[in-house]
Amino acid sequence: TVERLTDFAGEEAHAAISPDGKFMTFLSDRDGPFDAWISQIGSGEFVNVTKGRFQIMNNPSTRSAGFSGDGAQVWFMQLVSARPLRWTSWISPALGGAPRIFVEGGLDPIWSPDGRNVVYHTNDLGDPIFIANRNGSNPRQIFVSPQALHGHYLTWSPDGRFIYFVMGT
Fold first, then answer.
1. Nearest CA to 35 among 4, 81, 78, 86?
2. What is the pTM of this model?
3. What are the distances in angstroms from CA 72 to CA 9, 93, 161?
C-alpha cells in the first residue's frame, strides 16, 4: 500500500518511522526554518517538536532526525557552529515534552536492537564512531576513519553483534 503521509508546502526531509510503525518524524520548513515534526501515521495531525527554537539544517550528509530504540523519544540534530562545523543531538519525548541535549557533538544516534546501547559519530577528523549506554552516557570510541574519509549512516546488524556504516570521501 502506498499512502501519502504529508503534503506540506515547502520541503520535507529525513523521515523516520518509529520501531512499532505507529509514528513518523521528519524535518520540514513549513513554518519558516526547518523544524522537527512528529505525527501518528494516518491521523493527519502534525506536532512541531522544535517550534523554531533550534537551528536545524537539512544536512544531506547524515540523518538528521529519528526515534530512540523504544520509539518513546524523537531525536534531531542542531547546528551549533558553522565554523568549525559542530552539531549536537537533542532528544524529546515523542508524545510531548521539552527537548534536552542528548549527545553534544554526536550525529545520527542509532540504538541497538535490544535498546541497551546507542552508536553515533562526531564530525571530528575521521568521523570517530562511539558506542554508549542507551542514554548516551559512558561513550567509548570504537572506530575512526583514515584521514580524509568519512564514516556515516550507522546501522546495527539485526542481532546487535555488528555496526555497519558507509565510508568514503
1. 78
2. 0.90
3. 28, 6, 24
